[in-house]
Fold:
Amino acid sequence: MPYQREKNAVERRERIHLFFESYGIPAPNNLQEWIIERLTVLCETMKNFAANGNQAFQKKIDEGQLAHYENEIKFVKDHFEDWV
Structure:
């Protein structure tokens, strides 16, 4: 389902709020950077393990998981301002 700002931004904003509220902590001021960093580290971990011969991580890459997370990074960069 494609992202539709008018429909999806409010839901994402609410989910972000609920996430931090449920943990009893405030959302960090650098939330966008925090999300992108976590996704970037995940991508780098997958690539490094696969490059070192770990077949499980290579399978994840072959199945498109790396591309999915790389697309998520772009998505967050493109739409984060809709959610805050």
User: Anything to note?
Assistant: The CA atoms of residues 7 and 37 lie 27 Å apart. The helical segments are 5-23, 31-51, 55-62, 65-79. The two ends are 22 Å apart (CA to CA). The mean pLDDT is 96.
